[in-house]
Design a protein that fits this description.
Layout: E1 8-14, H1 20-31, E2 36-38, E3 47-54, E4 69-77, E5 79-81, E6 90-93, H2 99-108, E7 111-115, E8 124-125, E9 128-129, H3 130-135, E10 145-158, E11 161-168, H4 174-184, E12 189-199, E13 202-203, E14 208-209, H5 210-214, E15 232-234, H6 237-244, E16 249-250, E17 257-262, E18 265-273, E19 276-282
Parallel strand pairs: 1-14, 3-12, 15-17
Antiparallel strand pairs: 1-3, 2-3, 4-11, 4-12, 5-6, 7-10, 8-9, 10-11, 12-13, 16-19, 17-18, 18-19
Length: 286
């Protein structure tokens, strides 16, 4: 029997072989909740953290503290693929690079970068998805987009393979970073493994397995956890009713944004307007 319709935050450790949509579909069935949003997808071969918000929690997605993203990745030198990862067809081969060249290239690939998205991606040109065009043998001309890489950490080098941890901003394709690293060192490269371990304040160590989700045994976290980075102002009972009806209340704490709470639960996220909080997203009924 499906669980009662609920609002909440759900962290899932996505296994390889599932799409992010598959995980969302499993959560919909388990919790009887059709409204589920996520803060960033993962490719089917990738594993790790998916941050889901259920029900009225979907309204909180713009306020999530979901950056930076942290990934553990394995890059293989010597071959480039049409998908920039292990699922594709090899399109180019080259000799392996020296360690010194790799270290120099990684140091240069930090900060604000212009990244060309993979041919097999969800990017659109004139309403056409890049992966649809690529599958038809007519890849789109995708313009570079700005991304930010905060840091690379090399964990191991094993012959042709390089294990790294990448800290980056949202919208960064790690498989495109692998491709570009191969070019930068005069070689070729693609991604063979990818695992998202963190997204902002959320850690995969606190995520639920897909089996627990399917069984309805993965407890939802309260919506307040989704905005725990915001300062919180408790509300009196009369203030809670005002806020639940979208009305402003006096501000007694500092900040431009605040989580307005009552009885330990989130009532709304509000923006400051002078000396008052104006609710922008309300998640409790009046």
């Amino acid at each position: 029997m499906a669980a009662p319709i609920a609002d909440g935050l759900l962290l899932v450790d996505k296994p390889a072989g599932m799409t992010s949509h598959d995980v969302v579909a499993a959560a919909r069935r388990a919790y009887g909740q059709s409204r589920i949003g996520h803060a960033g997808t993962l490719d089917p071969f990738a594993t790790g953290l998916l941050v889901l918000l259920l029900g009225r929690g979907t309204r909180l997605i713009p306020y999530l503290d979901g950056e930076p993203k942290v990934y553990d990745a394995t890059i293989r030198f010597g071959a480039e693929t049409d998908t920039d990862d292990r699922t594709g067809v090899v399109t180019r081969q080259a000799p392996l690079p020296a360690d010194a060249a790799v270290n120099a290239a990684l140091a240069a690939m930090v900060g604000d970068l212009a990244q060309r998205p993979p041919d097999y991606s969800a990017k659109q040109v004139a309403g056409v998805r890049a992966y649809d065009a690529a599958r038809r043998g007519r890849p789109l001309e995708l313009e570079p987009v700005p991304v930010r890489v905060h840091a690379w950490t090399v964990r191991a080098r094993r012959g042709a393979e390089l294990d790294v941890t990448v800290v980056c901003g949202g919208g960064t394709y790690v498989r495109a970073l692998a491709r570009d690293l191969g070019v930068a060192v005069g070689s070729a490269a693609h991604l063979t493994a990818l695992r998202r371990t963190r997204a902002g304040r959320f850690d995969v160590a606190h995520a639920q397995t897909i089996d627990a989700v399917r069984a309805g045994q993965a407890p939802l976290r309260p919506l307040l956890d989704a905005v725990a980075h915001l300062p919180a102002q408790p509300l009196a009972s009369d203030e809670r009713r005002l806020v639940a009806n979208g009305r402003a209340v006096p501000a007694t704490i500092a900040g431009a944004l605040a989580a307005l709470t009552a009885d330990g639960g989130l009532v709304a996220v509000a923006e400051r307007g002078g000396d008052a909080w104006q609710p922008r997203v309300v998640v409790q009924d009046a």
